[in-house]
Amino acid sequence: MMKKLLMATGLLLLAFQWNTWAQTIRISGQISEENGDPIPGATVLLKGSTTGTSADIDGKYAIDVPKEGILVFSFIGYETKEIAIANQSTINVTLVSDISDLEEVVVIGYGTATKRDITGAVSSVTASKLENENPNSIQDVLRGNVAGLNVGMSTSAKGGGSLEVRGRTSLNAGTSPLLVLDGAIYYGQLSDINPNDIETVEVLKDASSAAVFGAKAANGVIMINTKKGKKGRPRISINSNVGVASVAAMEDVYGPHEFISWREDVFKSINAGGYEPYEFSDPRTLPSDISLDEWLAYDGSEGDPVTVWLQRLNMQPEEIKNYKAGKFVDWYDRIFQNGLRQDHTVSLSGKTDDVQYYWSLGYLNNEGIIIGDEFETIRSRFNIQGKINKFLTVGMNTQFANRDEGNVTVDWNNLQRLSPWGSEFNEDGTLKYRPNDEVSGGNHPQYDRSYIDRQQKEFTLNSTIFASVDLPFGFNFRTNFTPRFTFYERFNHESASHFEWSQRGGNASRQNSRTYYWQIDNILTWKKNFNNIHDFNMTLLANAEKFQSWDNTMSNNGFEPHDRLGYHNIGGGINPIISSNDQYSTGDALMGRLLYTFKDKYSTTISVRRDGYSAFGQSNPRATFYSIAGAWLFSDESFIDLDWLDFGKLRISWGSNGNRDIGRYAALSDLNTGKYFYQRPNGELYFVNQLYVNTMSNPNLKWERTNSFNIGLDFSLFKGVLDGTLETYKMSTRDLLVERSLPDILGFNFVYDNLGQVDNKGFELSLNSTNIQRPNFTWRTGMNFQLNRNEIISLYGDTDEEGNELDDIENQWFIGEAIDRIWDTKADGIYQESDKDEAAEYGKYPGDFRLVDVNQDGLYTIEDKQFLGYTEPRFRWSLRNEFKLYKNFDISFMLYSYWGHDGTFNQLKNRQGFLDRTNSFITPYYTEDNPNNEWARLYSSDGSASFSLYRKRSFIRFENISVAYTLPKKMLEKAKIENLRFYFNVRNVGHYAPQWNWFDPENSGPTPRYVTLGLDLTL
User: Would you give the distance in Å from CA 1000 to the centre of its chain?
Assistant: First the structure.
């Protein structure tokens, strides 16, 4: 009986197990990050059991589980996700990082730290968030995205623009921030760095964060970090885009018929009340009370009245001939173009347990909006690091670039000079040098470039080779060796076939230069945490550097019998000139920094750096710079219990940094040579060499020093809905590096010296908000606001009889005022016909500008000048909005604004150039029949005064709008494509400037608009 019972039980269990197996299915899929990258090693577990598996190198998994149940997906650093099986066979999962913003690692000088521990003012930009905007340069990545960083505009095909952190702090020394590329100081051009290679950019703004770079960091530091391979299978990424540059802002010139009417008004204004009725008018439209004979008799003319009329308007025979033939030229089309732009980058990257690599190759070819403006470059980057064993890692970050800048651009300024009635070609079909045969009437815009043969290229190789050794007790020693090579060549030939250059028998020149720069950084770091209470992060640095360059230049002219070989036969001329310019400098540094955190709430950073640089005087070859900073994460305090506060951190810092941005021999006297002819008593001429001291030395020259005090507040509110940073700072720059003027009796014009003080203070606010977050719609906004004020505290120490320090009138630097303060005679409207007598007292006429005579002495002197405004914006802001629709569409746009500053606007005078011999941009102007109080008459008079006119240059720019579409992954899986995205971008959509209506308020010249279409493909 028992035997039968056991057999029945076994059969029952077997049937149950069979039923269970019959209900088991295979689930497969891929586990990815939010950006689509796979997560190798992620765990998949059947909830409530021990059944599980791990994702492979591509993030893919497969598991046999019952039809009903729950799968748990997890990986270190990501939030765990549970998904019901619900009879599904494919489950793709996206895991969200559970690392808070405070735990995010940020690159700082010679190391890294978490945001929680940072005590200085550091702003970070992630380049991947701007991919849809197709940044062509580092400046495009940064523009409008960092509070306190001013990015200039460049309208050339090369692009780019100036960089300035927290305003101007120096009078003569450079104000550009220090560049650091992948942890090593970088002295190359930003155009050599491919924006597609950039991972993040950190901007170190206060003295504490930048102090580890000491004598080079007074103007801030920009740290560029390039991409590294990510764990998983090898990836091939392709970014390819094409676009068009078109003219967005340009002023019109007078067309053929408007030109004639305008020229009539020019001569009426030049002769201001001293001409006969209708003297400059078309004789075919004379009123009935003036006969043609009377009209001709005004100046005793005879012959064809139309010819006489045009001659009175100073039109040249060529113009008169073309006018009668009805032939005119639209010079705009000979100067401007729609430029083709293309940028292509392919990269290969990956990471295994032992090797991490990233390689890219990029080609960029941009045409500008002006004919001849072109920039071409090939750029490549190779980053690799390998783990040799448990304690040794070696690697290399190498960047190669080959730039071609041999373009010859037409002179767009000829547009306002050239008469529409000039001739474009000679009778033989060649370009006519002077279209109207008048010297002041402008040259054919394409004439010069058609006789120039130019080759200008620069090859650069920048590399950082490193080895890192992990030592016991939390120590690490790393050595960086960073060599940089540049090879520059410029060959130029100006043909003797040119109308003017023929007189010199053609010109040719060759220039070759080579630069070799290296630096070594020996870095010892110690990171140790004791009982999760005391956290130490110490960095010690020993640095050495050397710069050396060699430059050779030769030129010649008067080539005989001809110059057709150009720079290929530089010795064929009769006037050879050979010169060389070699330079050499060295530097060294010692640095120590300690970042200490107590209970993850209280942090302090202390640093000291000692720098030496050969450019300074022998009495001060070195300087020491200090900083100290503290931070308090007050949101982690038990006595602060606010539901709406996620985190809050208060920071305070003080530090001292230096500026060494001067010439390598600024402190030294240098000897110069020259040659001159000497005549013997018998009349024979011969060359005499001379040797003379060219500059005055200053053995006491030392670093310009900037002390900076900063208070910052970082916060996040409402469960991450709103976060931001508030900064306020004050900087004081002493021992300014200035060119001090010297009396002529000394034999030198100036000497470099340390004089004076400039203070700088400001306020910055950055905000980021998630306005709406739904499954199929997300709207995020980012905003930056900044204002900056500077003041000259002292200059040279020279005082007047009352003990007040004297201003520098020549450079317009005034004690107690800003560096950019405008000091000039103030205009007060236009003299009207009723003001004729008053205008005459100052040698002016109705239609000229009335100026404020402060002391009422009837003269315009220095005593009449006033402070009128500022040339730098009083505040700046930017606003970015990002929208994500249905997980596939991304839309973003950005605005930025500069407000409250003034710019010169002398076009109001209507006297740009020789109006009686050229064309002009179309502007309003005063006439007796059409008076106004803003625009002067044509060819107005300044009288005895010398002054400029100013207008508010405030503007808001619609910087860009971008639309991108990412194809769903299910569509791409069959083609083995990981990601495919198409994007469309318009940069410089338009601008609003309420008081500035001349060209572009940021550029004051032709400004381009870029339209780009591209794709991003990952295999």
Answer: 17
Task: Confirm if 338 and 374 have CB atoms less than 8 A apart.
Answer: no
Q: The tokens of 647 are what?
A: 């985190």
pLDDT digits (tens, 9 = 90+) for 18-30: 444 446 788 888 8
Whole-number pLDDT of residue 465: 96
Type and span of the H or E element at 395: strand 392-404
| pLDDT per position as a tens digit, 520-557 | 999 999 999 898 899 999 999 999 999 999 999 999 99
Distances (CA, A) of 157 to 160, 321, 331, 364: 9, 39, 21, 11
Nearest to 537 by CA among 478, 479, 596, 592: 596
Q: C-alpha dihedral over 59, 64, 67, 68, to 10 degrees?
A: -80
Using CA atoms, how far apart are residues 641 and 637, in angstroms rounded to an integer? 8
Cβ pair 784, 959 in contact under 8 A: no
- pLDDT > 70? residue 109: yes
Query: Residue with structure tokens 């577990």?
Result: 45
- Which amino acid does the sequence have at 127? A
Cα–Cα distance, 847 to 835 (Å, whole number):
10
Q: Is 874 exposed, middle or buried (0-12, 13-18, 19+ CB in 10 A)?
A: middle
Query: Is the previous residue joined to 561 through a cis bond, with omega within 30 degrees of 0?
Result: yes
Beta bridge partners of 60: 30
Q: Name the burial class of residue 681, with classes exposed (0-12), middle (13-18) and buried (19+) by CB atoms within 10 angstroms of its CB.
A: exposed
Q: What is the pTM of this model?
A: 0.87
Tally of CA atoms within 13 A in the half-sphere of 637 that contains its CB: 10
pLDDT, tens digit, 9 for 90 and up, residues 448-463: 999 999 999 999 999 9
What are the DSSP calls for 5-46, one per residue? HHHHHHHHHHHHHHHHHHTEEEEEEEEE-TTS-B-TT-EEEE
Short-list 629, 588, 628, 586, CA closest to 608 = 628
Assign 3-state DSSP to the chain and report helix, strand, coil percentages, each to 5.
15, 45, 40
324 is written with which tokens? 């009668």
Query: Which residues, in sequence order, are bridge partners of residue 759?
Result: 732, 791
The answer to whether 134 and 241 have CB atoms below 8 angstroms apart is yes
> Could you tell me whether strands 534-557 and 507-530 are parallel, antiparallel, or unpaired per DSSP bridges?
antiparallel
**Residue 613, number of CB atoms within 10 A of its CB:** 23
Tokens 């719609």 belong to: 777
Residue at 712: amino acid letter: G
Q: CA of 53: how far to CAs of 63, 73, 534, in Å?
A: 7, 10, 38
| Type and span of the H or E element at 514 | strand 507-530
